[in-house]
Amino acid sequence: MAEPASSNDTRTRPRDAALGSGPGRVLLTVYIIFAVAAGARAGVQIALKFSEAPLAYLLSAVAATVYLAATVGLAIGGTKGRLIALTSCSIEMVGVLVVGTLSIGDKAAFPDQTVWSDYGSGYGYIPLILPMIGLYWLWRNRPRS
Amino acid sequence: MNGPLSVATIVVALALAVWYLLRAALNRPPARFDLLAVAGLGALVAVLVIVAVVGLFDGSKPADTATFSGYLITTIAFAPTGFVLARMEPTRWGSLILGVACLTLPVLVLRLQQIASVVTGG
User: Fold this and answer.
1) Confidence of residue B120 (pLDDT cuts 50, 70, 90)
2) Is the pTM of this model over 0.90?
3) Mutate which of A25, A27, A45, A48 to test chain B, going by most B C-beta atoms within 10 A?
4) Bridge partners of B119?
């Protein structure tokens, strides 16, 4: 089944369209940006000043890995890709809520910023919104029999 | 890093972002002009990054050189990534990808300026 060259309405989106096409490709773009942003930050933090705040820097690395996994999941699509994307979006959702709450409640444990600190306020709260959009997108394109 | 070149990059990127978002809202895929424009922006960014790299070697290094370099690499890769992804998506969503990329670039340039303003004594 060929996908129409330009579908202006998601209702006309074929059921078997790839996860990472159409609006999914926009989502993929944002995930690439965050994978790189979080990854670069974690890399610099761990390489240069790991002993200052090991917990925060490890969290940065975890966040980066999760964004990277979501990117890969959306990119490869299919059953396996869906599962990877679903898992990483769920971890993200939980991560941003837990770390966001902890970083506000217990400043001492988080002396340095991570992507998820203060619910991602340093990144325009996009880390909070992104997993919601991701989960919605996966739900919307769930396999139906 | 605070020269007219950065200002020009930010202004061009924001103007293009408005244009791309408008195109996406009107349900238009990226046209040839749109792709050429993002390539042009990429060239402008490349010049900016080269100037910044040259600046690294003439004494006034930012205190956080590693972070600065990381941002430089991310910044120069940005427009080409948007270009490739937008070409893969010849729908309104391709225009939105370009819009998102052009909205993020000014943030990167501002961050670069911020990091560059903290210098170690040359």
Assistant:
1) low
2) no
3) A25
4) B62
